[in-house]
Amino acid sequence: MVLQSLKNCLWLPCVLRTPKACFWSTAGGGLIIQSVSNDIYQNLAVEDWIHDHMDLEKQQILFLWRNSPAVVIGRHQNPWQECNLKLLRQKNIKLARRRSGGGTVYHDLGNINLTFFTTRKKYERMENLKLVVKALKALRPQLDVHVNDRYDILLDRQYKISGTAAKLGRTSAYHHCTLLCNADKFVLSSVLKSPFKGLKSNATPSMPALVKNLFEEDPSLTSEMLLDAIAKEYAVQHQIDHHITLINPADETLLPGISDRTKELQTWEWVYGKTPKFSISTCLNMVYKDSVLDVKVNMDVKHGRIEVCNIDLPEQWLPPGLYNELVKSITGSKFCPNETTTLLTTLLRLCPQDDELHSRWSLLCDNMIRLM
Amino acid sequence: VCIHRVRSCSSIRFIKSKYVCVFDKSALKFSHQQRLFRTSAVSCGQIVQFKLSDIGEGITEVTVKEWYIKEGDSVSQFDSICEVQSDKASVTITSRYDGIIRKLHYSIDDIAFVGKPLVDIEIDASKGVASEEDVVETPPMSHEEHTHQEIKGHKTLATPAVRRLAMENNIKLSEVVGTGKDNRILKEDILNYLAKQTGAILPPSPKAEIVPPQRRAEAVPAAPKDKARKIPVPVSRPIAFAGKDKTEPVTGFQKAMVKTMSAALKIPHFGYSDEIDLTQLVQLREELKPLAEMRGVKLSFMPFFIKAASLGLLQYPILNASLDENCQNVTYKASHNIGVAMDTEQGLIVPNVKNVQVCSVFDIAVELNRLQSLGSAGQLGTSDLTGGTFTLSNIGTIGGTYAKPVILPPEVAIGALGKIQVLPRFNSKGEVFKAQIMNVSWSADHRIIDGATMARFSNLWKSYLENPASMLLDLK
To answer: Which of A89, A325, B186, B326 is the most exposed place for a label (fewest CB within 10 A)?
Structure first.
């Protein structure tokens, strides 16, 4: 109710003037905004936009957002290492790479995200997290929540209910964190477990932690209540009115260039291509006819593309020319099941139409693609 | 190096000629000093060690995660240099100077220390060295300025130094053509613009394609009544185009296409086209669509085309065959695995519906739905993409009438379907009626398929589709 009426108040008079100027400048040193979208890419794009465009000298911003199911990896992480990509694809869970550092998290509507925008000089994560803890305690004084030295918020001293990450630019910075209200813990634990073996990389690893929802501690709590409590505390600390302005991440007039940013965050080059160089050393167990073949595979992947590939097949299992064609084909291509499938099935068109050969080829292809 | 220095050291009057510097560096240096009456004996460029500034929160070391530049690249102030990470915070380090990167002090994954040199930058001697301050010394651009630019619809990129120069000379940045990275306006763009305004004579730039647009329009041709007098001819200047060619390797879907089509070249293709009256089929589909929807399936025209093709292949099995490499043996394939060309975001992909000869039209529709959703999600498997024996390409959904499809080896035939158009045709009574017409273009391997076979197959396929009830007779 409060949100809706204020939304109208704020928008109507601004229709005639430049909506942007009116929207962004408010009285006081702070602004609280909430996204109307549940799309992870749109919301991440809003963070980018504010970070690059807003002058945070006079006012700081608190951005509140929630997403439909998505796995979000940190800027310098390896998605193959961090989550179960096959499961993600099956369950239609989105994969996004954010621009801040840190580890991998699972978002769904039972998780709320808070982003604190300040100037680079005023960047202070502990203060922000203490604000959140203060808000939680004000709402439910009996909650045992505190911030540890890893910038996590712990419930009952052992369960992680919030993780933190940050991005610093030349003049501005943001610190964002999650807060588990009522997320699906079962999906969370299954998607954040990678079945990958034999991966060597310098990408930032995630620290698995025991998690709990605030809802489990107190079933009367909802995401809306938590958002409201945190906004209230922020308003008090920044001496501004406690009202939350709604923002639509698809509004190009309010956020010029936002749709390009949203698109960029969805490209393969960003999500997968930004993975730091890694190598794979694993063994395919291929069941062929009545025996099991152990085939060693070694690959180097840079910018998400296969740089080097070595498959240790039994001699003459494939005609030698064909093996070379295979390696030549996938070298330089994306470490991606779709592209590899297309390339390898195309090669099959060009070799002699031999059923035996076809079944061997298909077996090898399927096993290779399973790695990706 | 010298090129860069020359650009910034000179005044408007002379040196725009970048080519001069290719030769003796030292000679030029001395001649410069004479003309500019420089008192300080400064070397060609000064190397400044750009130190990693304070990250905040008492952090003393970070890990270098990505370099955005390499040694030898030229950078402008505020360009991103690298990305470092410290304890869940990712920091973008930007350059404080305009210059050329001379040395990177760290490799990826190295630990970098706050207060120690990060990169060495060679800056212009004329600019001098900025005092050692925190990176965040220039006040951020006020939000009104930002808004103003955004309203214009595009952001004019320029460093503060360039902006100051423009302001001092009363130049609107939006009128200047930027030739730097991302259409950034460089100092020489301002100087070029100024030169045009004052009419100063400049030697022609070696880069002929970048010519600033003429500000004052030449006289427009006079009205016809003035034909008697001399008509001044408008001088059109080429419009400045700052685009650059981009070369990238052929990989992925494109590579697959290159391989397939190069192999297809070996096949001598012949084409055969015809027109199909789908009026009855359109009506039939309208009736069946809701039935299919009730079963949760989207029914397009393709399942009918595919089933009709399979019925045709039963009569002309040579179109469902494969020729071996030496053209010595023809293999007649038992299964009709009919491929359907699909256009996805990444490119062309051709999954096939297996064993159409034992599928009903509804079965085909179900399978097509499955393949289409997997195709758009990029999740087609190897079995979906292999084993095809005959292909149909419904290019008509995008547009077009007649086409010249390319056979996908090891197949020997392919059909391209144009769009369905409503056209006037004559019926048996000689009356004009509205007909739903679609064109089909077949291509076949002339080594084993002859024109007559293709034509007869096409006629049979056509008859099934023009009179769908006849399909009932032969449906297995």
So the answer is: B326
Structure letter (DSSP) for residue A211: B
Of residues A154 and A24, which shows the higher confidence score?
A: A154
Instruction: Please determine, for residue B476, whether its predicted confidence score (pLDDT) is greater than 50.
Output: yes
Q: Domain-by-domain residue ranges, chain A? A: 29-272, 278-371
Residues in chain B, how many? Answer: 476
Q: Which chain B residues are within 8 Å of A167, Cβ to Cβ?
A: 89-92
Tokens representing B358 are 């034992």
Residue B277 host element (H or E): strand B269-277
Question: How many degrees, rounded to 5, is the angle at CA B316 between CA B311 and CA B317?
Answer: 95
Domain architecture of chain B: domains with CATH = 46-123 (2.40.50.100), 160-197 (4.10.320.10), 269-473 (3.30.559.10)
pLDDT tens sequence across A211-255: 999 888 889 988 999 999 999 999 998 888 888 999 999 999 999
CATH superfamily of A29-272: Bira Bifunctional Protein; Domain 2 (3.30.930.10)
Closest-CA distance of chain A to residue B114, Å: 15
Fold of A278-371: Enolase-like; domain 1 (3.30.390)
Per-residue pLDDT at A49: 94
Q: Do B90 and A151 touch (CB under 8 A)?
A: no
CA count, 13 A, side-chain hemisphere, B28: 19
Rounded to the nearest 10°, the torsion over CA A236, A242, A246, A247 is -30
Q: Tell me the three state secondary structure of residue B322.
A: strand
Instruction: Please name which of B433, B427, B438, B429 lies closest in space to residue B461, comparing C-alpha atoms.
Output: B438
Closest in B88, B139, B378 to A164, CB measured: B88
* pLDDT per position as a tens digit, A275-317: 999 999 998 888 888 888 888 999 999 999 999 999 988 888 8
Q: How far apart are CA B232 and CA B218, in angstroms?
A: 9
Average pLDDT value for residue range B43-50: 76
Is the CB of A310 inside 8 Å of chain B's CB atoms?
A: no
Which helix (H) or strand (E) segment holds residue A228: the answer is helix A223-238
Neighbouring CB atoms inside 10 A of B83's CB total 23
Please check the confidence at residue B55 and state whether its pLDDT lies above 70.
yes
Tokens of B77: 């102030």
pLDDT at B324 over 90: no
- Could you write out the DSSP letters of every residue in A140-169? -TT--EEE-TTS-EEETTTEEEE-EEEEE-
Instruction: Name every chain A residue with its beta carbon within 8 A of the beta carbon of B322.
Output: 353
